[in-house]
């Protein structure tokens, strides 16, 4: 089995470039954190899409694919094709949503465990509203596409929850 050293070199150079981009993006995020800087959404997305590591991992996955991952394939992926960008956006948003859910759960727990200035039923209302938002937006935009939550509303009106 003959190896094409030039092709292997090109593949590795493209992969290393992706790794460098990730390291630079991590550095930028660390700088924001240490300076207490909150970037605008566009600036955040530009950097945080890179820190999903999606482009780098997609490139790395090509390394062991043999002949099908030729020079043209590596040039294609290094040009940031739309499928990679779209996948990065999905990955970033999913990660941010889960991260924020964990943060919110911790905040909610803190709000319930630590004595507060307001009565518990008021805190329960806030928690219940968060639960409603989860139902409305869990699988689809139930606010815009109300047919998604129609059965929930019907059930609530037919069988109200006692309080």
From TrEMBL:
User: For this UniProt entry, which residues form the secretion signal?
Assistant: 1-25
Question: Which Gene Ontology BP annotations are present?
Answer: terpenoid biosynthetic process
Q: A Pfam family matched by this chain, by name? A: Terpene_synth_C
Keyword Zinc-finger (UniProt): no
Q: Which cofactor does it need?
A: Mg(2+)
Q: Which UniProt keywords apply?
A: Lyase, Metal-binding, Signal
Question: What PANTHER family does this protein map onto?
Answer: (-)-GERMACRENE D SYNTHASE (PTHR31225:SF221), OS04G0344100 PROTEIN-RELATED (PTHR31225)
| Name recorded for this polypeptide | Terpene synthase metal-binding domain-containing protein
Record organism? Citrus unshiu (Satsuma mandarin)
């Amino acid at each position: 089995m003959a190896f094409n050293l030039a092709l292997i070199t090109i593949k590795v150079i493209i992969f290393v470039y992706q790794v460098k981009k990730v390291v630079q993006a991590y550095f930028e995020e660390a700088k924001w954190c240490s300076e207490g800087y909150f970037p605008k959404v566009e600036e955040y997305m530009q950097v945080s899409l890179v820190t999903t590591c999606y482009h780098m991992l997609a490139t790395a996955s090509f390394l062991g694919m043999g002949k099908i991952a030729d020079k043209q394939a590596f040039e294609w992926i290094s040009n940031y094709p739309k499928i990679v960008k779209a996948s990065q956006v999905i990955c970033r948003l999913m990660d941010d949503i889960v991260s924020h859910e964990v943060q919110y759960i911790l905040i909610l727990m803190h709000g319930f465990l630590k004595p507060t200035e307001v009565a518990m039923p008021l805190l329960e209302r806030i928690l219940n509203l968060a639960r409603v938002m989860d139902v409305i937006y869990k699988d689809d935009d139930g606010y815009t596409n109300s047919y998604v939550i129609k059965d929930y509303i019907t059930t609530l009106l037919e069988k109200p929850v006692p309080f």
